[in-house]
Amino acid sequence: xxxxxxxxxxxxxxxxxxxxxxxxxxxxxxxxxxxxxxxxxxxxxxxxxxxxxxxxxxxxxxxxxxxxxxxxxxxxxxxxxxxxxxxxxxxxxxxxxxxxxxxxxxxxxxxxxxxxxxxxxxxxxxxxxxxxxxxxxxxxxxxxxxxxxxxxxxxxxxxxxxxxxxxxxxxxxxxxxxxxxxxxxxxxxxxxxxxxxxxxxxxxxxxxxxxxxxxxxxxxxxxxxxxxxxxxxxxxxxxxxxxxxxxxxxxxxxxxxxxxxxxxxxxxxxxxxxxxxxxxxxxxxxxxxxxxxxxxxxxxxxxxxxxxxxxxxxxxxxxxxxxxxxxxxxxxxxxxxxxxxxxxxxxxxxxxxxxxxxxxxxxxxxxxxxxxxx
Length: 374
Prior knowledge:
- It is built from 17 helices and 2 strands.
- The chain has helices at residues 3-10, 14-41, 46-56, 72-81, 103-115, 122-138, 142-159, 176-194, 200-212, 218-234, 240-261, 267-280, 282-295, 299-312, 323-335, 340-353, 363-373, and strands at residues 66-67, 98-99.
- The radius of gyration is 27 Å and the shape is elongated.
């Protein structure tokens, strides 16, 4: 019932009216101040980027050209204030959709904002990993896939997931119906915990076991990771089983995304995937990147990897791939029949990392150096 109507039906009491209005207005002011303070403390809010990225993609990760995109302040204001103001519904669900003129640009902006936040916060880290893993594989825009793949590098260094894996395939993959059944089991276990049911812990354990038993593709892993994150937020009896499940799903997401990126159809994404492998674990990725680079026929990838070696140094020996083998690879690129840009990039890497005692962009200098070493 509107406030004015309540006053009319209950009789007029000026003192009570004043107190009620004051309390209502102060509550609104305090909530608005909270929104302002949150935005002032952190110019960007992870939930805002999560919301916007969801709005920018449909269920198949195609770009949408209509949606509800909000600023950091608007996101906090709408989620903090909600329905607290009389006769005003500020919730995100009530916001009107608008035209999205350039979804690719919006994706890049929101993903870059999300990656700039502090990944030491568990929720922020989870959102960063979830979106990078999904967009690195499924986004239709090359620039978005490349940025997402690059973002997986430092996330992998923090997660330590091991080597990438190829995307799952086969008839034993969980179907959407199988996923929905297990997700419902998980949600029912949470509901039981919130209601204080005696068997709540056992029901959650059974749900975790059922989820672990599923073999999921990348889309299924993404949905599962987001579900478990939300369950952990609301489950009052969260235990080690959910924390361990969260990490396992994040590891699988990282492995699948980078594995897919290494064979992406675009050279820029493949180069980003190789850099991500070495950023996450230089030793473990040494042999993987070595074999891929030997088979790579893209000048863009060759140049990108030479520049990476120039900046980060040559990997130490591991899995049968030695530093000498990397030097020989660079020497071959510098003095072979590759394009000029590839040869220059290789010579610059040699100048920085070969410990030759000189720097040169002359092919003859590196030929003389190589022969003197033999």
